[in-house]
Write a structure and sequence with these properties.
heterodimer, A: about 375 residues, Arc Repressor Mutant, subunit A, four-stranded mixed sheet, 15 helices, 11 strands, globular, B: about 350 residues, alpha/beta, 14 helices
């Protein structure tokens, strides 16, 4: 995962500083189309975070005593399910990792379905690539997995699901918050400074230079193929940025990096809490009713429907909508004699959602 | 079709203008006034434009000599400075050679001979330059200044709407959403409606939404790589979508209530505004006129929704806007250099 396909990163690439001896530069060449298609992913991906949580646990185990161990690591070790142990065979402590974890699906079951549907030829290529630099021979069950053995596939799917449930799901609110906080920090940088500034602020090792992105740390050059790069802030990942360069158009190339935590932690991962006693920040800011109105408009609604959903009078709903409209958190569209309220992009960001494809064309015909 | 070829560097350097430009808006109003004069009654003019026509100052009349009925106009009048005085200073500082070549080119396509004062202007005559500067300033003061508050609101609302589109869809989708005449295709930007082909010379393009402009997107050219190209487009008017053009929101002296105060309450809105400059808790309390305990409480609420962040400095705490908070206040971060990871 995030280590590339056949042209992926060489061994010895990891976030572990001890493994980075050379400062050769990796270079990703962008066509103008690639830059124009570079965008943030819209939501954190549970399967990717699950795999990275496992890697984080392994790295913490190796670094024991060197660094303060995050509280989530201590809790996760305790909660680690026995059924997830096969993943320790599958995911080495350092990249490359098999690509089939690389699902950006926002729902874990959907992502696991994609894993289950991976053709065995892909599994085999993937596994032999991921094992190429590891010592010894892969265990029998992994060789079976490479043959597409359904039982082995089920083993992996179950391991991932159980690990997700035990370690990631309890912290999912924190993961989402870290994701959205990171994107909220980044996008004004993108707007005011362009991609050049954005890349310069993602990680000290990244720098835009001469039509491409340089990354200190290893020696490989690759091209995007006009499909751009998807930027993925990760809550569980603490290491260096990970590229995944893909030839497969179903799976765009991506750059995964450690999400910055909004509240002063060095990385989001230190803030990962199970069941955060977060309280309802939006309600504290706007008052519970107005916060409920804003949340209710995650789906566009008329005034009467809005009033019904929130449980207030239509007059009151209309008044709240007016206040939210004045500060551009929602938009109101006249629809015959009725009106329809919906979130603006700013409102979505405030609620912690990026706009979906459906909203984006709406500037058309504005004049 | 007009075509702008981007290198990858050009795309990576394409960004929004950090602020609205008063001199540019003045010129764009002038363009619409000329359009109105050229075709009276052909289209229903917006109320604000008729008001602007009535307010047109006598001292701005030299602009009617200088500017032909339709654009393009001489480039030396294009300034994207966020401050009027800076914009006028740029006009004043135009070298004589530039004045001469731009005015010469402009008059070659116009009937008759230029009036004496314009010939003097082309010679760099100080008095003529001052005449132009005064005309621009007076026009600005008469028609732009009274509406500047709503123009800023429109500008910032436009940012708030477009920036998340850029994040989720990339520049390709953003360009496609700005105007039907614009489309990203094959490593460049197409603009239907006129012909030409330009390279951006690695300077990228600056996107400049205009509150007053209602026409098709226009480009400020980059002087062969000396300045970035600027794409000026009509900001989507605020107000009820689907209803008639809300540029009537640009009426002078709008009873512009304080939307932020209505949303957050006056004190919390004042706290957020005060943090446009980073401050410690005690200073914040002093500026807003509340107790430190109350300032600290408001800061916590704002921090919990990522509108501000607080960093510890020794024994004290310093609060500052996050980019989301800045967007909420309608400012882009002035400089992002400080954000660079070190």
């Amino acid at each position: 995962m995030h280590s590339g396909t056949a042209e992926g990163l060489p061994a010895g690439v990891t976030g572990d500083p001890a493994c980075i001896r050379e400062t050769v530069v990796v270079r990703v060449n962008f066509t103008p189309d690639d830059v124009a298609r570079t965008r943030f992913t819209v939501a954190p991906a549970p399967l990717v975070e699950t795999a990275l949580a496992l890697v984080g646990l392994r790295r913490a185990a190796r670094a024991r005593g060197h660094v303060g161990t995050s509280s989530w690591v201590i809790e996760a070790r305790r909660a680690f399910p026995v059924t997830a142990r096969p993943l320790l065979d599958l995911l080495g402590p350092r990249p490359p990792w098999p690509d089939f974890f690389d699902s950006s699906a926002p729902d874990i079951e959907q992502a696991l379905e994609e894993v289950r549907a991976t053709p065995w030829t892909d599994l085999r290529a993937d596994l032999s690539y991921a094992w190429a630099d590891r010592p010894g021979r892969p265990p029998t069950w992994i060789r079976n997995l490479g043959d597409g053995d359904p039982e082995s596939v089920d083993l992996v799917v179950r391991a991932l699901r159980d690990l997700y449930k035990a370690v990631v799901a309890p912290r999912w609110d924190s993961v989402r918050i870290a994701f959205h906080a990171d994107v909220a920090r980044r996008i004004p940088v993108l707007a005011a400074g362009g991609h050049e500034e954005l890349f310069g602020t993602l990680h000290p090792r990244l720098r835009w230079r001469d039509d491409g992105l340089d990354r200190a740390g290893n020696n490989m050059v690759c091209d995007l193929h006009g499909d751009g790069l998807v930027l993925i802030p990760s809550a569980f990942w603490t290491g260096e940025p990970l590229f995944s360069v893909s030839d497969d158009e179903r799976r765009p190339s991506s750059l995964l990096y450690a999400a910055a935590h909004a509240n002063g932690h060095t990385s989001a991962c230190d803030g990962l809490m199970a069941d955060p006693a977060a309280g309802d920040g939006l309600a504290a800011l706007l008052g519970p009713t107005r916060a409920a109105v804003l949340r209710a408009l995650a789906a566009p609604r008329g005034t009467v429907e809005l009033a019904g959903v929130v449980g207030i009078s239509p007059a009151s709903a209309s008044e709240h909508a007016k206040v939210l409209r004045e500060v551009h958190l929602i938009d109101t569209l006249r629809d015959g004699r009725a009106v329809r309220h919906s979130l603006t992009a700013l409102g979505r960001t405030m609620l912690g959602q990026l706009p979906t494809a459906g909203d984006r064309g709406d500037g058309r015909g504005a004049v | 079709m007009a075509r702008f070829n981007f290198t990858s560097d050009d795309v990576a350097r394409t960004r929004f203008s950090p602020a609205a430009a008063p001199l540019l808006e003045t010129m764009l109003i002038m363009a619409q006034l000329r359009g109105l004069a050229a075709a009276p009654g052909r289209r229903r003019a917006d109320g604000w434009l008729l008001e602007a026509q009535a307010a047109f100052p006598a001292t701005a009349r030299p602009l009617l000599d200088l500017l032909r009925p339709c654009m393009p106009w001489p480039d030396f009048l294009d300034s994207f400075a966020p401050d009027l005085a800076d914009g006028l200073e740029q006009v004043r500082a135009t070298p004589r050679t530039v004045l001469r070549s731009q005015l010469g080119r402009d008059w070659r396509g116009r009937p008759g001979r230029p009036p004496t004062w314009i010939r003097n202007l082309a010679d760099g005559d100080r008095e003529s330059v001052e005449l132009v500067v005064r005309a621009l300033r007076d026009l600005h003061d008469a028609v732009v200044e009274p509406r500047w508050g709503s123009a800023l609101v429109t500008f910032h609302a436009e940012m708030a709407r477009r920036i998340p589109m850029l994040a989720a869809g990339g520049l390709q989708e953003l360009f496609g959403s700005l105007h039907p005449r614009l489309r990203w295709r094959d490593n460049g930007l197409d603009r239907t409606g006129f012909d030409g082909e330009w390279d951006l010379h690695g300077q990228g393009m600056v996107l400049m939404p205009s509150a007053f402009w209602t026409g098709d997107p226009m480009f400020g050219l980059g002087d062969g790589g000396l300045r970035p190209y600027v794409l000026v487009y009509a900001a989507r008017p605020r107000g009820l979508r689907g209803r008639a053009p809300a540029r009537d929101g640009l009426r002078a002296d709008p009873a512009d209530g304080d939307g932020l105060a209505a949303l957050l309450g006056p004190t919390r809105a004042a706290v957020l505004r005060a943090l446009a400059a980073p401050r410690g808790t005690a200073e914040l309390a002093g500026v807003v006129g509340i107790s430190p305990a109350s300032a600290s409480e408001h800061a916590k609420v704002l921090r919990d929704v990522y509108l501000i962040e607080s960093s510890r400095e020794g024994r004290s705490v310093r609060h500052s806007l996050t980019p989301l908070g800045a967007t909420m206040l309608g400012q882009l971060p002035a400089s992002t250099a400080g954000e660079r990871a070190s």
